[in-house]
Amino acid sequence: MVTSATLPGSATQALKSIVQQGFLVQPCTPHCQVVQRDGDHAVIGVSPGNSYFSAQRIRDLARWGLAHFDRVDIVYTDVYVAEMFSAMGYSEIEARRKADKNLRGVRAKIVAAVDDADPAGQRLFARAMSDFRSNDAYRALHADLLRRSAEDEEFRAVCAELVARFLSSKAQDGVAPTPRQHEVCLDYIRAEVPLFLDTPAILGVPSSLNCYHQLLPMAELLYARGSGLRASRNQGHAIVTPIEGGVA
């Protein structure tokens, strides 16, 4: 559930998109550009049930990642998927069935891309979001987000805006979102955010660029100046979109 946003003001004036192997790469900030140039590690985020992520698109992203980074992890969200469907009105059985179908499909496409691009399994890896639940750094970051949900007004306001934006696109005319829908959306957001904050701590890499075809919904917050919830110094983000017409 990633919703598009606008680039932080400092980034829009300082950066230009980079053309690489059929993709347009736009770092979020000048510091994100440094992380991108270092080329230590990239996370390529993939959303289940999103038609944008065809098998060919994922293969192309995998090859692009390997060409520009020492290590690449393709991460797909497999947590709170059934709960999201249930909150949107599907029965528990239907919600689980739809979630399982979407996850089977995206998992198969990612595994195929990994096997094709890096058959030795040395630099390219497929990971489910649930894999991180046993990771100490991820757990610490997630616990901090739970605390901030109660204590950090800035973080709480950004989350509320994201939830409202997402639910407004799903709600039927005249039907207000339910408290259950709000809570499930918050759970989903908080599950994703640790990888936006400090993937290097989670995966033990020097620096990491989080890559998606839309801007991180929390970019304004995570890459702002001053105190508050901020991405770590070796964490970056870039918008990576395909160039129409093939490889450049």
Automatic annotation (TrEMBL):
Keywords: Transferase. InterPro entries: CDPS, CDPS_sf. GO terms for molecular function: aminoacyltransferase activity. Signal peptide: none annotated. NCBIfam families: tRNA_cyclodipep (TIGR04539). Belongs to the CDPS family. This is Cyclodipeptide synthase.
